[in-house]
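Dissemination and training. As part of the outreach component of the grant, students in the summer workshop were shown how a complex can be specified as a set of sequence lines and then modelled as a single object. The example used during the hands-on session is reproduced here so that future cohorts can follow it. Participants entered these lines:
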Amino acid sequence: MRNGKVNRDSISSGLFFLLGLFICLYSLTQKIGTLAAPDSGLMPLLSGAAICILALIGFAWAAMRKQPGEPPRPLFRGYAWRRSLFTLGALLAFLFLMKPLGFFLATIFFIGFLLRTIVPQRWAVVGIVAVLTAFFTYLIFEIWLQAQLPRGPWGI
Amino acid sequence: MEILQNIAMGFQTVLEPLNLLLCFLGVLTGTLVGVLPGLGPVAAMSLLLPTTFYVTPVSGIIMLAGIYYGAMYGGSTTSILVNIPGEAASVVTCLDGYQMARQGRAGPALGIAAFASFIAGTLATLGLMLIAPPLSRMALKFGSPEYFALIFLGLTTVTYLASGPMWKSLMMAAVGLFLGCIGMDVAIGASRFTFGIIELYDGVGIVPVAMGLFGIAEVLLNVEQSMDRTVFTSKIRGLFPTSRDWAVSMPSILRGSVLGFLLGVLPGAGPLIASFAAYAMEKRISKESAAFGTGMIQGVAGPEAANNSATGGAFVPLLTLGIPPNAVMALLLGALIIFGVQPGPRLVVEHPQLFWGVIASMYIGNIMLLILNLPLIGIWIQILKVPYPILFPLILLFCVIGSYSLNNSITEVFIMILFGILGYFLRKLEFEPAPLILALVLGPMLELNFRQSLAMGDGRLLFFVERPISAIILGIALLLLIMPIVRGNLSSKAKTGELSGPPS
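and obtained this result:
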């Protein structure tokens, strides 16, 4: 910490501590057993406790560093984080569209969207790459490897 | 004589047309993912794991192993021609390899990288073949406390060797251990942390987790940075190193092979550490150490030999003890379990075809790689020219297909995306995901052996140190845990002058 502000390590330690605490509390709802006859709750309890202890160490480490080196540096400054967000959005949309549209059509939209929005490619490149990718992945995974990909109203 | 009979059986297995084809596909895919920056062997192996369900376990493991050592070959091409490591273990090859390319010696750099990889890969396979069977026989005497101690040591070493503060790697291991608890309890079958989600009853699968942490997260991190790269395009000639190149490189190759193999066997070290250690060793030994980084061929030969040799070494603990020393091996362990093969010291006895078939396939695979790498260099250069903005949607698509086809379930894809987001933030916060993967796979084994040991020792924790082997192993693990603290104290004392004495 510097100037009373928190750094990345103290934030992550805090989050991990909460996770560890949740795991410990949830483990207590399971049977812990005894050392001679340990039950199913023991290992999660131990791992939860380990997470909490390590989070405290991390918090202390972040606070005690004499030269933190980095003032609270924003995670996203200097990065085109919107691209990551769009990519993630496209991935989630693809996931939800796969069943209603079917793999083939959803793939064309997914690939086409990413090619056109992240680093915009020419429409011709977008069209050709999207259709060819959908075609060849369908051929390899559905026809040859029989992966049973989701089928849309048109059977593909 | 027995070893010759066994290896003959191995060759008989691998020379079956299907196995030969899969070995070829494995090393080809491996080279491809090695060449392409942003797609590593873990992601590629997770991606192709579901496709191996249609073949026998031997064929599947032969292909997956091929991807691993193939990636080490391919990684050097990108390091030398683009100055970007195609694969993490090739980082150090950039230092002298790219300088050689700039001086018009891209050919010999690529050539020596391929030959060094071939020699080291073959020597490591020989080492694996000689060491693994006796080690397996010794491991048969191990009980639960020894296994617990070994797994604990494995996790400790991984966290010790990972970059960054140790508490971060230990944190990743602890989170991995927790994730390993999700699903049915290994001993009595009670469900834990499943929250009624049917897909979680079998536990969190290693494939969606690995694909998320290594595939999706990598893409998310790459797309927000500049995606431009310049490929060294001038005509590449003279792939065969000169006799002078051979003379200076051969000792480096042999040293790198031995060091790489030994570090590969160690839990946690793996090809990346091996290549750095080999580079440091070459620099220290050389009379021209100041010239390293300016295009010294030893700076390519040593590390390339070491990272390939380490891949062979990494198979030793996996095939003999059933303990994976790194994330890639953890994935192979997961694959073995999915195939219904119980990894461990009995593997060599119960599945000799698999054991010897994989070893023989590594000899064949290394020859294939040598043939693939040099004549096909032009194709790899063309592939390197495919712009990342076109490549990354395909990587994402393959990740989605790979995780979906595990159980034909959208939930698995969703889990993969969740771990992708987690991996993205973990990397931003400077946490390394490798210990998490390893702990996820080792967690259930650790728990089972821990609980069995406690039951055997009637609940006495001292039981672990009453048995000499487990006591020694736990002692080493404890030492690794304490060392960073002691080192930190010593360096801070040195800074304040307590150890170094008064300034002169």
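The longest helix of chain A spans residues 42-64. Students were then asked to discuss how this feature might be tested experimentally.
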